[in-house]
């Protein structure tokens, strides 16, 4: 079964205890976080890394220092060895989310904002564009981000990055279920969306339909305290 966690970031960015955890990350991750010009971007990335590591440590009953992460040929982070554990995270605006599972999983969260709908022709299939333009006003905007997060979650679960053509699969959001039509080898997927915030869209993709009913929420202080157990 998929486990899904969310952390809502706090407006006070300077005095958060979680900043002290940057030193437990690999050097290359520390350097990446320090390169961010905006403190908000650094905090999102740090929180996502710590959340992923907390869930790995908890699931495998291991210490953070023993985690060895590698990347597949397309840059997706994986656990070294044959643990059989898969994870994925995403962040946008105030939210950091992570999914962990015993099979490939992908997750995406996006803040809903005004966009140029001509982007749909570049990133969506013909069927997706048709479904999008059948909607009007705010419904069209919300459906754009439904499709965007669903497609991102599928791409991230497949683990092939942008080498997977965006028009090689099509997703339709119905009242009863979310349908996937694909010519890719990665198929037999299920999707679930979660309403964590009225200003955001969030979607998860897995190769089964055993999703939790709700996202488990953690505060930043709670994340910090729970992670200390595994340092």
In short:
Helices cover 32% and strands 25% of the residues.
What's the pLDDT, averaged over the residues? 94
Helix vs. strand class:
alpha+beta
Give the uncertain stretches in residue-range form. Answer: none
Helix content: 25-40%
* String of helices and strands: EHHEEEEEHHHEEEEEH
Total beta-strand segments: 11
Our estimate of the beta-strand percent is 15-25%
Strand order of the largest sheet: 4-5-1-11
Number of helices, counting only DSSP H or I runs of 4 residues or more: 6
Shape: globular
C-alpha end-to-end distance = 26 Å
Largest pleated sheet: 4 strands, mixed
Rg over C-alpha atoms, rounded to the nearest angstrom: 18 Å
Observed structural traits:
231 residues, four-stranded mixed sheet, three-stranded antiparallel sheet
Summarize the structure in words:
With 231 residues, the chain is an alpha+beta fold. 32% of the residues lie in helices and 25% in strands. Helix 1 runs antiparallel to helix 2 and helix 2 (39-60) packs across helix 6 (220-228). The longest helix has 22 residues, at 39-60. The chain is globular.
Task: Please write out the topology.
Elements: E1 3-8, H1 27-35, H2 39-60, E2 69-71, E3 77-79, E4 86-92, E5 95-101, E6 105-111, H3 119-123, H4 126-133, H5 137-158, E7 169-173, E8 178-182, E9 190-193, E10 200-206, E11 216-218, H6 220-228
Parallel strand pairs: 1-11
Antiparallel strand pairs: 1-5, 2-3, 4-5, 6-10, 7-8, 9-10
Helix pairs in contact: 1-2, 2-6
């Amino acid at each position: 079964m998929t486990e899904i966690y969310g952390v809502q970031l706090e407006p006070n960015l300077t005095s958060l205890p979680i900043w002290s955890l940057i030193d437990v990350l690999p050097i290359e991750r520390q350097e990446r976080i320090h390169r961010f010009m905006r403190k908000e971007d650094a905090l999102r990335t740090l929180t996502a890394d710590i959340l992923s590591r907390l869930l790995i440590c908890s699931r495998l009953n291991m210490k953070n220092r023993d985690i060895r992460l590698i990347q597949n040929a397309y840059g997706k982070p994986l656990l070294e060895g044959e643990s059989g554990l898969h994870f994925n995270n995403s962040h946008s605006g105030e939210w950091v989310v992570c999914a962990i599972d015993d099979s490939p999983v992908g997750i995406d969260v996006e803040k809903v904002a005004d966009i140029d709908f001509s982007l749909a022709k570049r990133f969506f299939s013909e069927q997706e564009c048709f479904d999008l333009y059948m909607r009007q006003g705010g419904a069209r905007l919300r459906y754009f981000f439904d499709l965007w997060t669903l497609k991102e979650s599928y791409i991230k679960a497949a683990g092939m990055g942008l080498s997977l053509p965006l028009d090689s699969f099509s997703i339709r959001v119905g009242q009863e279920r979310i349908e996937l039509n694909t010519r890719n080898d990665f198929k037999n997927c299920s999707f679930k969306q979660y309403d964590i915030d009225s200003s955001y869209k969030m979607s998860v993709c897995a190769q089964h339909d055993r999703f939790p009913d709700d996202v488990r929420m953690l505060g930043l202080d709670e994340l910090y305290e729970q992670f200390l157990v595994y340092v």
